[in-house]
Structures are given as structure tokens and as C-alpha cells.
Amino acid sequence: MADVNRGNRPLSPHLQIYRPQITSVTSIFTRITGNALIVAAVLIVWWLLAAATSESYFKVANFVITSWLGQVVMFGSLWAVWYHFLAGLRHLYWDSGRGFELEVATKLGWGVIIGSAVLTILTLNVI
Fold it and tell me: What domains, with CATH codes, occur in the chain?
């Protein structure tokens, strides 16, 4: 391999000067919530399979889902559904070629964050 003189250049953008924007943060959270929903789906399918298998197996699965940890996972999954949904709507809006101005993109990012929290609380109050 050739000896390349890379000089004394900083990384671009360097972590010490880079400030995350709301659009990058919401994009990262969209990926995280998408993967978290896979975990929630596996737990729900496990619970349904346990219900179809036997009463004793269902008791084990139901205990896990209704435990405090299971409730935290289910609450987080509910928020992730709303977050992922609103982020998807934002992307559909962007796909139409609109909303790329910095001010509009910032408002859309905050709308996804605040909207998902509000919709999660509203959903929990209905249930």
C-alpha cells in the first residue's frame, strides 16, 4: 500500500466542534425506535404463542409482560410506535419536496418529539 501523507488534518466534522441538529437527533431516534419495535414485536408474539400453547407457559409469559420491567418495555414500545409513525409522516412530507428550510425542519423535528409524547399520554389515558 502506498504511504499516504495525511498531514495533520482534523476529522471532519470533529466531535469537539460538532453540534447535533434536531434533524440528526430525530433521525437517530427513528432508527433506534425501529429496532426497539422489533424487540417489542418479538415479546408480543412470544406472549401470543404462549397463550396458544399451554396455561402454565402462558403464566410465565404473562408474568414477564406484566412485571415492572415488562411494563416499562411496553410503555417504551407505545412511545416508539407513535414516534416512528410521526417521523414517517415527516419523511413523507419531505418526499414531496417541501419542509427542507432550516426553520421548518426544526419545527417538524420538535413536532415529532412533542407529538409522540402527547399521543403516548393520550393513548395511555384511553386504555
Answer: 22-126 (1.20.1300.10)
| Residues contacting 109, CB < 8 A, separation 6+ | 22, 23, 25, 26, 90
Q: What is the pLDDT of residue 15?
A: 64
State the DSSP string of 38-107.
HHHHHHHHHHHHHHHH-HHHHHHHHHHHHSHHHHHHHHHHHHHHHHHHHHHHHHHHHHTT---SHHHHHH
Residues 15-61: tens digit of each pLDDT: 667 788 899 999 999 999 999 999 999 999 999 999 999 999 999 99
Kindly report the length of the chain: 127
* pLDDT for the residue numbered 86: 97
CB 22 within 8 A of CB 110: yes
Nearest-CA neighbor of 51 among 42, 64, 60, 38? 60
